[in-house]
Amino acid sequence: MKKISVLLSILFLYSYSAYSGELYMWTDKKGVTHVSDQPPKEEVEIEETIGYKEMKEADARQERYRNEIQEIKNKYDRKIEELSFEMKRNKNIREQEYNNRKDKLEKEMRQSEVRSAEKQYEYLKSREDKYRQYYHDAKKHEDRDYWFNKTKEVDEARSKLMKLQNQK
Q1: Nearest residue to 85 via CA among 69, 73, 101
Q2: Would you tell me how many other CB atoms lie within 10 Å of the CB of residue 135?
Q3: Of 29, 26, 28, which is closest to residue 13 (Cα–Cα)?
Q4: Cα(67)–Cα(65) distance, rounded to whole angstroms?
Q5: DSSP code of 44?
Q6: SS3 for 47?
Q7: What are φ and ψ of residue 48, in 5° steps?
Q8: Looking at residue 46, what is its pLDDT?
Q9: Phi/psi zone of residue 31: left (φ > 0), alpha (ψ -120 to 50 degrees), beta?
Q10: What is the pLDDT of residue 49?
Q11: Whole-angstrom Cα distance, residue 76 to residue 102?
Q12: pTM tops 0.70, yes or no
């Protein structure tokens, strides 16, 4: 019964931690393990501190960057579609003029993608050392996998940026 109540406490605090700063885990003088979002009031050695809020904020920022890139692509796809429709509807637009406008839009789209990819990479690059430190400090296999994937995201963002820059 005691184990169940400790597990339920951990699950409750885990879900609460998405809105708080960190979780603290320690064992008191009686041998009871505690998990809380507040540091212990008594003098004990904290076994582990986990910054979930920071992880959630970083994930949310990454998602915003991905959405921004998708919105840029959608915007320019719609503009190209409109041009195509306009060309079909209005036979007076010469094909060369259409191609020039399309090329201009595609160039703007590539430039916007590069700028967005640069922002994403700059952010990830600024976090890379922290990700590597968290990876080395992680005790659980799942935590190590999470931080390893975060470091991979930095490499993927770098590769994507280089690819976009070489397409210019």
Answers
A1: 101
A2: 17
A3: 26
A4: 5
A5: -
A6: strand
A7: -160, 140
A8: 62
A9: left
A10: 59
A11: 10
A12: no
Q: What single-letter DSSP state applies at residue 32?
A: -
Q: Which position has the token pair 């060369």?
A: 96
Cα separation, 31 vs 47, in Å, equals: 13
Task: Report the alpha-carbon distance of residue 119 to residue 152 in Å, rounded.
Answer: 17
What does each C-alpha distance from 92 to 96, 100, 107 come to in angstroms? Answer: 11, 15, 25
For residue 70 the two structure tokens come to 């998708």
From first CA to last CA, the distance across the chain in angstroms is 64
Give the separation between CA 58 and CA 61, rounded to whole angstroms.
5
- Give the residue, 110 or 60, on which the prediction is more confident: 110
Which residues lie across from 34 on neighbouring strands?
Answer: 26
CB atoms within 10 A of CB 28: 11
43: Cα separation from own chain's centroid: 37
Helix axes of 2-17 and 52-89: crossing angle, nearest 10 degrees: 50
Distance from C-alpha of 26 to C-alpha of 49, rounded to nearest angstrom: 9
Rounded Cα distance between 92 and 102, Å, is 16
Residue percentage of the chain with pLDDT more than 90: 3
Helix (H, G, I), strand (E, B) or coil at 133: helix
Count Cβ atoms below 10 Å from residue 30 Cβ, excluding itself: 5
